[in-house]
Design a protein that fits this description.
The chain is mostly helical. The termini are far apart.
Length: 125
């Protein structure tokens, strides 16, 4: 991508006119226009440095933003997975509670049966 294309893409991304962009970077609008039109322009090293820094910073910010968005999506997926696991664990716990309650109920019935059997044997004696 040429420098002119990069400048135009940057301007469009941030909704800047050539004049607005030229004010931002303190470079004449005519110079910006010639760069975008890819006309032969005497490249001023100081102006190029300003443009390169601005465009490089924007590229870096875009990369960082994309990485953050990707990380956020990964975190959302992990959160959703944890919520689903939590629901499944709650259901398993409910089932275990039912089983334990049944065991205690059976144990109570057994203990009661033993007591009744003991009482009956004492009465027979």
């Amino acid at each position: 991508m040429t420098l002119g294309e990069q400048i135009k893409k940057y301007r469009e991304k941030y909704g800047l006119s050539q004049r607005g962009f030229s004010n931002k970077v303190n470079i004449s609008q005519a110079y910006i226009s010639m760069l975008e039109a890819e006309k032969e322009v005497k490249l001023d090293p100081e102006k190029l440095e300003v443009l390169e820094k601005l465009l490089a910073e924007d590229l870096l910010n875009t990369i960082v933003k994309n990485e953050e968005e990707k990380e956020n999506k990964n975190m959302e997926k992990k959160d959703n997975d944890l919520v689903q696991e939590n629901k499944a664990l709650k259901e398993n716990i409910k089932e275990l509670i039912k089983i334990i309650e049944k065991i205690y109920s059976d144990m109570d019935a057994f203990a009661l049966g033993v007591k009744i059997g003991t009482l009956k044997s004492k009465i027979k004696d």
